[in-house]
Amino acid sequence: QVQFVESGGGLVQPGGSLRLSCAASGFTFRMFGMSWYRQAPGKERELVASITSISGTTTYADSVKGRFTISRDNAKNTVYLQMNSLKPEDTATYYCNAQWGYAYDYWGQGTQVTVSS
User: Fold this and answer.
1) Which of 45, 49, 51, 72 is nearest to 62 (CA)?
2) Distance from CA of residue 89 to its chain's centroid?
3) 40-66 burial by CB neighbour count: b if 16+ within 10 A, else e?
4) CA–CA separation, 14 vs 11, rounded Å?
5) Measuring CA to CA, which residue among 76, 94, 88 is closest to residue 35?
6) How confident is the model at residue 101 (pLDDT cuts 50, 70, 90)?
7) Are 108 and 7 in contact (CB under 8 A)?
8) Residue 45, phi-psi category: left (phi > 0), alpha (psi -120 to 50), beta (remainder)
9) pLDDT the model gives residue 24
10) Could you give the angle at the alpha carbon of 23 between the alpha carbons of 21 and 25, nearest 5°?
């Protein structure tokens, strides 16, 4: 059974930092590309950052480049999102995603990030 445990969300002031974690189980983690998505109220879900399975190549949305860093620890079956210099517009529910080709696409339950003074 595929399971995700997401943690690290919360309330932070503008300019602050948070580190999201997503611990996965129930599938061969090292074989999957991992991503973080986010969805703000009234908006579509958007891709924030991705990291590939083998080479660990990363990609980022333009809105978070230079501020967010995605990483993975295959020994711990965990993907991370380090978020620095947070802005109010980063407020959203953040979702962990695992994908292998077009056949396997798994989602976490989401963790809330609120950036506000």
Assistant:
1) 49
2) 16
3) eeeeeeeebbbbebeeeeeebeeebee
4) 10
5) 94
6) confident
7) no
8) beta
9) 97
10) 165
Q: Are 27 and 2 in contact (CB under 8 A)?
A: yes
- For residue 41, the SS3 value is coil
Q: How far apart are CA 62 and CA 114, in angstroms?
A: 20
- Specify the amino acid at residue 26: G
SS3 31: helix
**What is the pLDDT at residue 102?**
84
Mean pLDDT over residues 43-53, rounded?
97
**pLDDT for the residue 86:** 98
Q: What's at 82, amino acid-wise? A: Q
Q: Please report the pLDDT score of residue 103 as a whole number.
A: 87
- Rounded Cα distance, 48 and 33, in Å: 14
DSSP notation for 57-114: -EEE-TTTTTTEEEEEETTTTEEEEEE-S--GGG-EEEEEEEEETTTEEEE---EEEE
